[in-house]
């Protein structure tokens, strides 16, 4: 049966969770780049907050500047840790930066993270930020199969991507009036059997991005893909092929793969 | 199994939408507690959607539909199986006072890691002290700062109050904040370096001991033993135990990470680590205040005997606190609580 591999469909890292009911689902993990952007944004927010507070304290402690400095120093230090820990703890794993970049921190078994975990992973920034610019944390993320920095490893958390997804819309190849591949049911069946999920989504993407591709690139890509399908997967008879453009060939193939298959 | 995707989508969409809106409702609720009827509905929709996901996974090439259902199932799974914690006692505002007893309890439970931290610090101290005592050339290497190398000058300055500025109360306040944040940061480093299997923690403790031993011997050699004790003890009584507890937390973490994944009780262990950090941070706040406001005043103002007496009293308090507080609890409440969580 086709498409029965439980794991990888895309090339990005993901975590597969098996529920007690025997359902497998995958969580897409966040790579270092969006996490870095989210962190930079959060840092900017913290700096702005501390500076704003600084003016307030400066004004309130005008008579005793030494105590003003004391307040600011301690507040800056505390906010640096507490911002991430409290927001992630109470806001279901998101800071403002993470929310904007569609990231969320969760427990590594797929559950919402607990408040202690939020504290641990934020306190551990002291290590991950070493020696500068989160170098250690970055190396840790890249060397971990589930993209954990040291703080995540200790706290047992990970960061997932949360792109909002709508249930997929109907595509044009599902509504072809006539698909000439249906004339050759046995070859069409072979195509359906042999196509891997990767190959199928490759065809789908190529067709969907039709208008984003430059004409010559589109011709070239479609020609290569059609030639591959024809040569390696499911050879339809020549008299049919001669009548079809490469694009039509792929549309027909997509129709067979994704369309009404009764 | 090959399905008719069109019909499948059309049939599934109502329940998927229903599940999605239920999830949005639940996720916006901070305590995440389910009402009985919601729980029932969630369970039912979750089961149906999980079945749909299984069918798509095994029976159709619909990567996006599959992804959509996966996210839906993941979210429902989290809501359904995640027992909202009793908000982890530690961070509930009204339970914060419990840190004061929970910290010494954690300290005693993990005392062997504290012992290791003490051992390494003492080794460092002995090494530093002996080096300064028997190899004068090592002084330049071990004590790079001039004030550490030439105690007489420093003592003279300190006693004359020349190191102090006009409005010293203000300076002391600012200074104390720097000390507090710096010390907490170093302690976090020591505790976090447990991820290097404790090697980083050990190096940090050794270096700390080395410096302490070298300074103590250098000052004593030159006849300022009393001064240096009076200078360091009042805040050292809290500061040195704190860095040792940071080392303890570091070794505890290292031991935890060396265990096989299945043998770890992460939940319990993380709490323990956090308790140690929270406790040592409190101690360092006190140490920073004492260092800035008290330790820097010397003989004519504050007699050395008095400073040492204060330091000794603090040390006794810390010892009693760490060894005795919460001990009554260990018999009854603690005994009942710990096994329940593990």
Helix content of chain B: over 70%
- Could you tell me the radius of gyration of chain A in angstroms? 26 Å
Which ranges of chain A are low-confidence, i.e. pLDDT below 50, for 5 or more consecutive residues?
Answer: 1-11
Number of separate domains of chain A: 2
Biggest sheet character of chain B? none
Main interface pair?
A-B, 67 and 70 residues
Q: What average pLDDT do the residues of chain B reach?
A: 82
Q: What Rg of chain B is obtained from the alpha carbons, in whole angstroms?
A: 29 Å
- Which class of secondary structure composition applies to the elements of chain A? mainly alpha
What spatial form of chain A do the alpha-carbon principal axes imply? Answer: elongated
Q: What is the chain-wise order of helices and strands of chain B? A: HHHHHHHHHHHHHH
What is the ordering of alpha helices and beta strands of chain A? EEHHHEHHHHEHHHHH
> What count of structural domains of chain B?
2
Oligomer: heterodimer
Describe what is shown at a glance.
By secondary structure, chain A is mainly alpha-helical. Chain A has two domains: 32-161, no CATH class; 172-258, no CATH class. Chain A contains twelve helices and four strands; from the N terminus they run ββαααβααααβααααα.
Which short descriptors sum up this protein?
heterodimer, A: mainly alpha, two-stranded antiparallel sheet, B: 0% strand
List the helices and strands and how they pair.
The complex is a heterodimer of chains A (262) and B (342).
Chain A: E1 14-18, E2 24-28, H1 32-60, H2 65-90, H3 96-100, E3 103-107, H4 115-123, H5 125-128, H6 135-143, H7 150-155, E4 157-161, H8 185-194, H9 197-208, H10 215-233, H11 238-241, H12 246-258
Antiparallel strand pairs in A: 1-2, 3-4
Chain B: H1 5-27, H2 36-59, H3 63-81, H4 99-109, H5 111-134, H6 138-142, H7 146-149, H8 151-160, H9 168-192, H10 199-221, H11 225-258, H12 266-295, H13 304-324, H14 327-341
């Amino acid at each position: 049966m086709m498409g029965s591999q439980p794991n990888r469909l895309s090339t990005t890292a993901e975590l597969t969770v098996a529920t007690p009911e025997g359902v497998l689902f995958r969580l897409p993990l966040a790579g270092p780049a969006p996490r870095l952007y989210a962190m930079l944004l959060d840092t900017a927010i913290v700096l702005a907050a501390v500076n704003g507070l600084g003016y307030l304290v400066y004004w309130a402690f005008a008579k005793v500047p030494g105590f003003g400095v004391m307040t600011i120093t301690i507040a800056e230090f505390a906010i640096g840790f507490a911002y991430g820990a409290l927001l992630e703890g109470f806001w279901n794993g998101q800071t403002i930066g993470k929310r904007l970049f569609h990231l969320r921190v969760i427990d590594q078994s797929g559950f919402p993270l607990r408040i202690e975990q939020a504290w641990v992973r934020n306190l551990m920034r002291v290590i991950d930020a070493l020696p500068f610019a989160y170098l250690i944390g970055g190396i840790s993320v890249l060397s971990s199969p589930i993209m954990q920095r040291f703080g995540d490893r200790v706290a047992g958390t990970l960061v997932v991507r949360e792109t909002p997804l709508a249930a997929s819309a109907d595509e044009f190849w599902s509504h072809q009036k006539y698909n000439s591949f249906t004339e050759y049911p046995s070859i069409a069946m072979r195509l359906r059997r042999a196509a891997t999920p990767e190959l199928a989504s490759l065809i789908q993407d190529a067709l969907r991005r039709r208008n984003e591709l430059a004409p010559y690139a589109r011709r070239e890509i479609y020609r290569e893909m059609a030639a591959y399908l024809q040569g390696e997967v499911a050879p339809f008879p020549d008299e049919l092929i001669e009548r079809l453009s490469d694009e039509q060939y792929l549309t027909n193939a997509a129709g067979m793969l994704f369309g009404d298959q009764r | 199994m090959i399905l008719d995707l069109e019909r499948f989508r059309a049939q599934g969409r109502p329940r998927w939408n229903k599940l999605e809106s239920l999830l949005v409702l639940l996720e916006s609720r901070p305590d995440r507690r389910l009402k009985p009827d919601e729980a029932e509905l969630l369970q039912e929709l979750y089961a149906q959607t999980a079945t749909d996901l299984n069918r798509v996974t095994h029976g159709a090439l619909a990567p996006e539909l599959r992804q959509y259902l996966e996210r839906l199932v993941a979210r429902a799974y989290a809501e359904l199986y995640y027992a909202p914690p009793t908000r982890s006692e530690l961070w509930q505002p009204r339970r914060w006072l419990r840190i004061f007893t929970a910290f010494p309890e954690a300290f005693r439970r993990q005392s062997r890691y504290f012992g290791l931290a003490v051992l390494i610090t003492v080794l460092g101290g002995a090494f530093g002290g002996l080096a300064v005592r028997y190899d004068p050339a090592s002084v330049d290497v071990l004590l790079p700062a001039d004030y550490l190398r030439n105690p007489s000058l420093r003592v003279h300055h300190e006693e004359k109050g020349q190191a102090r500025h006009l409005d010293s109360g203000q300076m002391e306040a600012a200074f104390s904040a720097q000390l507090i944040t710096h010390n907490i940061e170093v302690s976090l480093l020591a505790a976090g370096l447990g991820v290097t299997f404790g090697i980083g923690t050990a190096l940090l403790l050794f270096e700390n001991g080395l410096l302490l031993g070298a300074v103590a011997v250098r000052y004593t050699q030159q006849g300022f033993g009393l001064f240096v004790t009076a200078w360091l003890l009042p805040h050292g009584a809290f500061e040195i135990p704190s860095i040792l507890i940071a080392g303890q937390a570091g070794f505890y973490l290292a031991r935890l990470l060396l265990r096989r994944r299945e043998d770890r009780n992460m939940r319990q262990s993380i709490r323990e680590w956090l308790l140690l950090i929270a406790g040592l941070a409190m101690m360092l706040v006190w140490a920073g205040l004492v260092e800035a406001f008290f330790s820097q005043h010397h003989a004519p103002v504050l007699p050395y005997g008095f400073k040492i007496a204060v330091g000794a009293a603090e040390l006794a308090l810390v010892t009693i606190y760490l060894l005795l507080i919460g001990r009554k609890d260990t018999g009854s409440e603690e005994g009942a609580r710990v096994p329940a969580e593990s």
